[in-house]
Amino acid sequence: MELNAEEDDPPHAAAHRSPSTLMRLELGGEVASVPLARRRVGAFLASRVCPDVWDDTLLLVGELLANSVLHTASGREPYGKVTLTVLHRDGVVRVDVIDDGSTTSAPRVRDAGTEREGGRGLLLVDRIADRWGTCVHGARRVVWCELGERKP
């Protein structure tokens, strides 16, 4: 597993942007990676965001990673990998979960009904994140979300 916390911009860019911080984790495509990532992200954001954004970000990191390891090739293939990046800039937290995608399904919000135990991950992301989406990056898929500072 790789953990990098570094400045995202070169020094000359500081005059044009506020400071940003970036964390990157390379995770195994297994359920045990989810709580580990939540702990690392929690420590990374602890002094950077307000408690509400911290809580919401950890919830969404858990949901997006769980979806990745349960529903994509990253979780089904031996030695599957998931990459998690968290960027904090200008009061916005952006979370990217990058996996090997699925040939049978695409991420979508669905009605899980009241009797099912699962199926609410992207519904939570849709309700809590300020913005979210998916894209393809080469052979990999990215599911991302953004959360801004909460107004009292």
UniProtKB/TrEMBL annotation:
Matches recorded under Pfam families: HATPase_c_2
Highest taxon above the source species: Bacteria
Gene3D superfamilies named in the record: Histidine kinase-like ATPase, C-terminal domain
Domain Histidine kinase/HSP90-like ATPase per the UniProt entry, residue ranges: 31-131
Signal peptide positions on this chain: none
GO molecular function, a single term: protein serine/threonine kinase activity
Record keywords, A-Z: Kinase, Serine/threonine-protein kinase, Transferase
InterPro entries: Anti-sigma-factor_SerPK (IPR050267), HATPase_C_sf (IPR036890), HATPase_dom (IPR003594)
Nucleotidyltransferase keyword on record: no
Name assigned to this protein: Histidine kinase/HSP90-like ATPase domain-containing protein
Species per Swiss-Prot/TrEMBL record: Sinosporangium siamense
Origin organism lineage: Bacteria, Bacillati, Actinomycetota, Actinomycetes, Streptosporangiales
